[in-house]
From TrEMBL:
InterPro entries assigned: BaxI_1-like
Disulfide bond recorded as keyword: no
Ranges annotated as spanning the membrane: 84-105, 112-133, 139-161, 173-194, 206-229, 241-258
Protein name as catalogued: Membrane protein
Lineage, highest ranks first: Bacteria, Bacillati, Actinomycetota, Actinomycetes, Pseudonocardiales
The keyword Transmembrane helix appears for this protein: yes
Species of provenance: Pseudonocardia hydrocarbonoxydans
Keywords assigned: Membrane, Transmembrane, Transmembrane helix
Domain of life: Bacteria
Pfam families, A to Z: BaxI_1
């Protein structure tokens, strides 16, 4: 399986084909030598193929679980923002972060309880953050939600049509970009602790450009997430694994939403 920028998807069972990401069980893309996945046996031991009468995963499973997870986050986020309980953001974020670590390192625990707990916690966290931003810039939260949904749907269309092929070269390029973005974020954080303004998060032209770069990387990361989910579907992973796929997609959406919210706040500054 090709590596994904999303750590959650690195534990997906291996599929049988590569090429275009189509979200179908037919595997319409061309097989390449690079798609001969070395971790097939490890993945099968960890998760197991659908056997013993267990139904294999389908795209409907992924859509339903992802929709339920996103809906949970949206509802609780809205309630948090409307109620003004912004103080819940930090503890909720800590809970979500801890749960995400559990799911990433112990994917066998992935199921409705933990995945929905992660979605609920991050929904509350994002709701608190969005409420604060919305008090300063009225309407910005709704704009960020619409923007995130638009990017998600846009990348899904790109993925389905094969406008951008998810190839080993594309994956390496995106992984390199992701590492670069993370290094810059860490550098900016360390410098800020010493009172040094790097310009990456101060709302100026450089900050706007950096936010656009991060949003671009996050958006293209969705292609890898879709492709990884497609590999699991084609590989006949058990249906219960749809919850883990939903969790992986949610982590990317949370990151994307935060970056879009940040960019919009820069554009609204006087």
């Amino acid at each position: 399986m090709r590596s994904s920028s999303n750590p959650a998807f690195r534990n997906l069972p291996s599929g049988g084909s590569g090429g275009y990401a189509t979200f179908d069980r037919q595997g319409g893309g061309a097989m390449s030598g690079a798609a001969a996945y070395a971790d097939t046996q490890t993945s099968q031991v960890e998760y197991g193929r659908a056997a013993g009468g267990e139904r294999p995963i389908t795209i409907d499973d992924v859509v339903m679980k992802t929709g339920l997870s996103a809906g949970t986050a949206l509802v609780l986020g809205t309630l948090t923002a409307v109620s003004g309980l912004y103080g819940l953001a930090l503890p909720a974020f800590i809970v979500g972060f801890v749960v995400s670590l559990v799911l990433i390192f112990k994917p066998k625990f992935a199921g409705a309880p933990l995945v929905l707990l992660y979605s609920a916690a991050m929904g509350v966290a994002l709701g608190g953050i969005s409420g604060i931003f919305n008090d300063i810039y009225p309407g910005i939260a709704l704009q960020a939600i619409v923007g995130t949904a638009g990017v998600f749907l846009g990348m899904l269309v790109v993925y389905k049509t094969g406008a951008v092929r998810v190839t080993p070269r594309f994956t390496k390029w995106l992984m390199g970009a992701l590492i670069g973005v993370v290094v810059l974020m860490i550098f900016n954080l360390v410098m800020s602790l010493f009172g040094v303004n790097t310009g990456l998060r101060d709302g100026g032209p450089l900050a706007i450009g950096f936010s656009l770069l991060v949003i671009g990387v996050a958006a293209f990361s969705l292609l890898l997430d879709f492709d990884s989910a497609d590999q699991a579907i084609r590989g006949g992973a058990p249906a219960k694994f749809a919850w883990y796929i939903a969790f992986g997609l949610m982590t990317t959406l949370v990151w994307l939403y935060i970056e879009i919210l940040r960019l919009l706040s820069y554009l609204r500054q006087d």
